[in-house]
Design a protein that fits this description.
The structure is a homodimer of 183-residue chains.
Chain A (H helix, E strand, L loop, with lengths): L1 E9 L4 H15 L3 E8 L7 E9 L13 E4 L2 H7 L8 E5 L11 E5 L1 H9 L5 H13 L4 H11 L4 H17 L8
Parallel strand pairs in A: 1-4, 4-5, 5-6
Antiparallel strand pairs in A: 1-3, 2-3
Chain lengths: 183, 183
Amino acid sequence: MRKEIRIAGSGGQGIVLASILLAEASGIYDGKNVVQSQVYGAAARGEMSKADVIISDEEIYFPEVRSPDIVITLSQDAYDEFTNGLKEGSLVILDDFYVRHLKDGIKNFHYPITKVAIDITGSKISSNIVLLGILSGLTGVVTLDALKNVVNERFKNKGELNIKALEKGYELGAKEAYDGKTN
Amino acid sequence: MRKEIRIAGSGGQGIVLASILLAEASGIYDGKNVVQSQVYGAAARGEMSKADVIISDEEIYFPEVRSPDIVITLSQDAYDEFTNGLKEGSLVILDDFYVRHLKDGIKNFHYPITKVAIDITGSKISSNIVLLGILSGLTGVVTLDALKNVVNERFKNKGELNIKALEKGYELGAKEAYDGKTN
């Protein structure tokens, strides 16, 4: 099992933190091998933020995402850019407030990611936690328990609300748990 | 110019954050191309924390650190592990409180990194800021101004003390600015 996951959106949406929490959950608590990376500079265009996580049962010899299995997008720009050339079977998770124009021929899974974050925690900054819950419920690529552990560690003061955001995301994702579920 | 920088220490020393701040400073403010990455899981041994940054004037086609130009270590374990097989010309920056047993034949630059952090900010958690200042002063691989920008963005409340920690680190590093200085 090797899964390449790309998370992308605008600056300020907590994309890098989402990918680090995912990597910690999977690497420390799910016992997988994980490489997490992001690019800055000319290669990272404008206001876009993008981070990659590779999760594998085996040692990871090639630490670069070439053809993601899962793409999570929190902005239209990110959607337009990173859903190009997806391989068959790849799925796309998107925020249906920020991403309104969808391409055909892609497995789009849309959720009110930012809205759920605001409803539960009062701040859109928690949308990165909601998306991790969705990712877990929908694909099983990371366990909910592992995510709870890292969220509790990271958010000492606001742990409880973030756990709620995570669980709500999981619930939404699990409703249509993807056929290609990896667990 | 391509520089591979590895930062390593124990869990809880802010190693990953240090590498992300370095990557942001270099990629966003110094105009370089940067890849930042870390590994979790079986490949990351025990309590050790390690993060890599590659800084380049060119596009980065090979995003993996193979032979670091600069290794920064905040623990003896990290020093012992990541100073093996260094190429000629590589330099090692170390915390002289945590790293006491040094190898011969290595360009060791030792500083009271954690002590300076505690003296200035009251907390050893700022040692990752001090080390970034030292890196800038000693090697020039990232500018002090770029680091100030990212530190101010990141630490809204405690910005001022962290800037002081950064400047003190820079001052220490600049005292023995390395011959192989890259700027």
